[in-house]
């Protein structure tokens, strides 16, 4: 169950100032560092990022073309990702976009692929693939070799997924109209499994401010139950020695550290591996202590990392 | 793929000047009703596809009937692989923006076209950098393609098509709601 904390004068005043339901701010005060800085940052549009599609062009060639059109770009910690500081055109309206030279993708979202450490010739499962940002990033890191199985249950979302894969020139991927929870039925063991789990999307409030007041504790409960089912499936289809990356765009510990804590207690062959970027995950929440290795998970905050909110856990299946 | 289908594909690769570049690639055929779509897949994907019947595999690069007709993605693949084909036109920057909006090509905006091109030819529409931005059909042959003030190439498909479809879908949803 989603933990609800008592209101305080601080949570009430911050909720009023920034237009949130106070239960949500009371929770943020428990797990978000510098809450006022965080709420302030959520008021401004998030920094926009593009990921260069190295299947079709190089970073240098794309940057040169966009700079000639008046774009101001900046390097980031991920080599293929550029921050867009100024753009004379909408990012989705340039010829380079239409020709598949880049994909509009938040830096936080790219961190999940960075953590998965995909390589040429591998078998990879993407359990919730649409609209294809992470799938296509993996394909380019794999240089269109190996094979990616991209699962997506929604027909409408499959359309946008296939469009993006086509536009970006991806040919090592198959799309199956299937829920990630059914992945065992594929009868394949994978070297890498990405579970970018459906979540309550707390991390994207800056993009969708209606979530300040539309968000309910029940959403967190619903999502965390679904996430637990999905990650169990992920573990069953990963090869010994393989890697699973679990990510969400939520800050809620019930959808992140608590889910991972439960799963590493349930399966005795999992190791949580550390990652280079991001803040350490929580090892305690609402009086509950988690396994100490939960500090190896990573949290990305808009006001700290200039990304949308993101959580990433990297699980190795021991041989 | 049957032997006959393989022959059609090989002839086409040869026609587009990419036979050597793509001869070791793995192609699969997806049957959609009477239509046979040719998909480029990675070698590792082949056995997985046969086992699992996904709804999409790899990149659809063309359709096979009695002959092979490349899609936009197919054309893009061929020209990236160094296609040495006479089936292209190159257009100026202003026309590039118009083609990406689905407009046809005026003779004034063509800056390069092989003289050997005949009327009703299937051609790649290239921008000034040599990138495939669309697929078209010629209305005239040779030098007549450069006629001023006339549409000389019909645009069949272009890289902006999906975005326009998506906009259309959004507009129709808004209309339904209102």
Please write out the topology.
The complex is a heterodimer of chains A (319) and B (178).
Chain A: H1 9-18, H2 22-31, H3 35-41, E1 48-52, H4 59-68, E2 72-75, E3 81-86, H5 95-98, E4 102-104, H6 107-116, E5 123-126, H7 133-141, E6 147-151, H8 155-167, E7 173-176, E8 190-196, H9 211-214, H10 217-237, E9 238-248, H11 257-266, E10 270-273, E11 279-280, E12 284-285, E13 288-289, E14 298-300, H12 302-305, E15 310-317
Parallel strand pairs in A: 5-6, 5-8, 6-7, 8-9
Antiparallel strand pairs in A: 1-3, 1-4, 2-3, 9-15, 10-15, 11-14, 12-13, 14-15
Helix pairs in contact in A: 1-2, 6-7, 10-11
Chain B: H1 3-15, H2 19-22, E1 26-32, E2 35-41, H3 45-52, E3 56-57, E4 59-64, E5 68-70, H4 72-80, E6 88-91, H5 93-99, E7 105-106, E8 110-112, E9 122-126, E10 132-138, E11 151-158, H6 161-177
Keywords:
heterodimer; A: 319 residues; alpha/beta; Rossmann fold; 4-stranded antiparallel β-sheet; globular; B: 178 residues; alpha+beta; 6-stranded mixed β-sheet
CATH topology of the domain at 108-317 in chain A, by name, is Rossmann fold
CATH class of the domain at 108-317 in chain A: Alpha Beta
The largest sheet of chain B has its strands arranged as 7-11-10-9-6-8
Give a count of the beta strands of chain A, DSSP E runs of length 2 or more: 15
Shape of chain B: globular
Identify the most extensive interface between protein chains.
A-B, 32 and 33 residues
* Rg of chain B: 18 Å
């Amino acid at each position: 169950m989603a933990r609800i904390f008592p209101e305080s004068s601080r949570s009430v005043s911050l909720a009023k100032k920034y237009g949130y339901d106070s239960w949500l701010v009371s929770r943020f005060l428990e797990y978000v560092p510098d809450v006022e800085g965080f709420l302030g940052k959520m008021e401004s549009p998030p920094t926009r990022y593009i990921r260069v599609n190295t299947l079709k062009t190089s970073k240098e060639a794309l940057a040169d073309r966009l700079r000639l059109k008046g774009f101001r770009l900046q390097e980031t910690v991920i080599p293929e990702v550029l921050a867009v500081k100024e753009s004379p055109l909408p990012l989705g309206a340039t010829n380079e976009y239409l020709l598949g030279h880049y994909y509009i993708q938040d830096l936080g979202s790219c961190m999940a692929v960075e953590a998965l450490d995909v390589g040429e010739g591998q078998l990879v499962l993407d359990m919730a693939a649409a609209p294809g940002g992470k799938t296509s990033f993996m394909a380019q890191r794999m240089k269109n070799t190996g094979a990616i199985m991209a699962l997506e249950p929604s027909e409408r979302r499959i359309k946008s997924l296939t469009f993006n894969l086509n536009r970006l020139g991806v040919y090592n991927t198959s799309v199956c109209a299937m829920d990630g929870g059914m992945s065992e039925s594929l009868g394949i063991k994978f070297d890498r499994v990405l579970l970018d789990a459906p979540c309550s999307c707390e991390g994207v409030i800056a993009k969708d401010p209606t979530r300040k007041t539309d968000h309910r504790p029940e959403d967190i409960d619903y999502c965390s139950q679904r996430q637990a089912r999905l990650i169990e499936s992920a573990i069953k289809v990963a090869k010994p020695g393989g890697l699973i990356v679990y990510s969400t765009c939520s800050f809620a510990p019930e959808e992140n550290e608590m889910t991972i804590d439960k799963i590493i207690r349930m399966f005795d062959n999992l190791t949580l591996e550390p990652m280079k970027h991001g803040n350490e995950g929580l090892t305690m929440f609402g009086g509950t202590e988690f396994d100490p290795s939960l500090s190896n998970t990573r949290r990305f905050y808009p006001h700290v990392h200039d990304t949308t909110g993101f959580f990433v856990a990297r699980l190795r299946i021991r041989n | 793929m049957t032997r006959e289908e393989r022959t059609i594909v090989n002839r086409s690769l040869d026609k587009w000047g990419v036979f050597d570049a793509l001869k070791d690639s793995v192609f699969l055929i997806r049957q959609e009703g009477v239509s046979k779509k040719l998909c480029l897949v990675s070698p590792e994907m082949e056995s997985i596809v046969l086992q699992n019947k996904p709804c999409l595999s790899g990149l659809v690069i063309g359709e096979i009937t009695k002959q092979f007709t490349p899609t936009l993605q197919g054309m893009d693949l061929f020209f990236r692989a160094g296609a040495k084909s006479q089936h292209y036109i190159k257009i100026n920057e202003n026309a590039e923006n118009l083609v990406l909006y689905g407009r046809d090509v005026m003779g004034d905006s063509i800056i390069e076209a092989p003289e050997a091109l005949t009327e009703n030819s299937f051609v790649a529409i290239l921008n000034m950098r040599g990138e495939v931005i669309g697929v078209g059909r010629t209305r005239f042959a040779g030098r007549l393609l450069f006629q001023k003030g006339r549409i000389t190439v019909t645009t069949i498909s272009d890289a902006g098509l999906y975005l326009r479809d998506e906009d259309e879908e959004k507009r129709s949803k808004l209309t339904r709601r209102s």
